[in-house]
What does this fold into?
Amino acid sequence: MNVPPSIKPALQIAPERTFLPLIFVCVAHGLNEDKALELIEAGMIHPAFNITRAETRKEIRIARAALLDYRPGKPRARLSLETVIAESFPPYLFLAKIALIRGIDLRARLSCSEAHLAGLLKDGELIQADEPRRGRAASPHIVFDSVVEFLKRRVI
It folds into this structure.
């Protein structure tokens, strides 16, 4: 079946992927990386987060809601950081006195690799609640408040 090039298939995004790599903006809106970064820096696509570690390639993540909300040339209300964070994580994490999120779940939400998450922990950007473990089910438990503070520090 031939599909005209002007018709793009719908972008499928898993619900747990709440912060998406910059390439998603590029693909969804037919932009190159420089133009996408311009839109982010101009506040047209907000919020976005720089989750880059020192001495690694640039890692920009866009809030899923911001990607879905952006319409070229159409002004819109700016999404608040607090709202985006609240909608990006399960509600129970905001209720507990000391909430923990499994590393594997945070990796899915941030769309990042295990090595990148381990590096953020090593750099002290996130706080691990338990001793590092080995093995297949060795996902670290991360203090959720440190995730929220990390995102607040890294918003573009």
User: Anything to note?
Assistant: The chain has eight helices and five strands.
